[in-house]
Amino acid sequence: MSEGRHVAIIGAGAVGVISAIEALREGYRVTLIDAGEPGGEQAASYGNAGWLSSHSVIPPAEPGVWKKVPGYLVDPLGPLAIRWSYLPKALPWLVKYLLSGWTEARVETTAFALRGLLKDAPQLHRKLAEEAGVPELIERNGVMHVFPSRGNFDNDLGWRVRKRVGVECLELSSDEMRQREPDLHPRYTFGVVVEEAGRCRDPGAYVAALAQHALASGAKLVRAKAIGLKLSGNKLVAVLTETGEIACDAAVIAAGAHSKRLTASIGDPLPLETERGYHVMIENPESGPRSSMMASDAKMVVNWTDKGLRAAGTVEIAGLEAAPNWKRAEILRNHLVSMFPKLPTDIPASRIKTWFGHRPSMPDGRPCIGYARASRDIVYAFGHGHIGLVGSARTGRLVAQLLSGKPPEIPLAPFSPDRFL
């Protein structure tokens, strides 16, 4: 069925390049379309925290979060900030966001769905990294969550739900945590380790290596901005770009936060929003964690990368066009120094790198993976939000299965674009 067919994949981020690799396995001719450099700083994949957290199954909204919305509106530097000027445009998405986590049962439904998407992700990424010649970039050595108290963990709905969907964790007392992480601030007195999880030592380099692997395996890369799709009846004819048409038999929309206008152009107005994220990275740090970790009080992931110690997190709802608020990156730096007191407070600016980018997010915390209504020649694979890197490995496999008409390896009903149409 796939032999000789040409698939155009719009977007050369983690999802796009892995979809290309998997489509090549199925015998497709593949063209990647992206105006930017695969793995470049413009991409969400580049700025990812680097976690391969197969336990990231909890949607962003949980019961009662609606009570915090007024605070989000008045605090531009909080863990989740909403710019007043963007509120009217974001309001329909925010309503869906709040409703998706209105009850614990809804959270659990999403958690079971995401568990299927993310389970075994570190192993899948390790295999891809080996194929691409960069096995050292993927490590499967667990991740740690740290809490100021045992009560913070026990009262966290997310951890109760994770247990119900099969996530196991090793609990650590204050002394056990200190043995593992001697530089961590003593205010953290309880921790858990999720041993199945892993990390990526350089997300940008990893995506770039996967793209090179796809090209070496026969894919082509067209550096252009996709602006639409050309259909004849229910058959795809071409992808339209700013530099011309690319004839193809099938297409994958994996353009991250820029996917919304492409789906709307063919009759699928999907509620995709950008959760703008920041990271700060300290080169040659004097101190830090021995393992990758998340601090529950700062809502921040800390991860060693080959380029330095990276802290990433927080969410800003302000759209694709607004200028970044670099004070949000400064807060991440302050949290990092607070977590590890041996880090100097006067680190030279030349050793501190900051980044800002766009997480593509659906309001219910689940990506869109499925067919367009206009044509089964078009597959959607976007909206992964906080799980783009970890979720990309299985998403790429699912894309290839959808293209070929094979039964998907996990149930795709929870990810169907139709749930919003």
From TrEMBL:
<feature type="domain" description="FAD dependent oxidoreductase">
    <location>
        <begin position="6"/>
        <end position="402"/>
    </location>
</feature>
<dbReference type="InterPro" id="IPR036188">
    <property type="entry name" value="FAD/NAD-bd_sf"/>
</dbReference>
<dbReference type="InterPro" id="IPR006076">
    <property type="entry name" value="FAD-dep_OxRdtase"/>
</dbReference>
<protein>
    <submittedName>
        <fullName>Amino acid dehydrogenase</fullName>
    </submittedName>
</protein>
<keyword id="KW-0560">Oxidoreductase</keyword>
<dbReference type="Pfam" id="PF01266">
    <property type="entry name" value="DAO"/>
</dbReference>
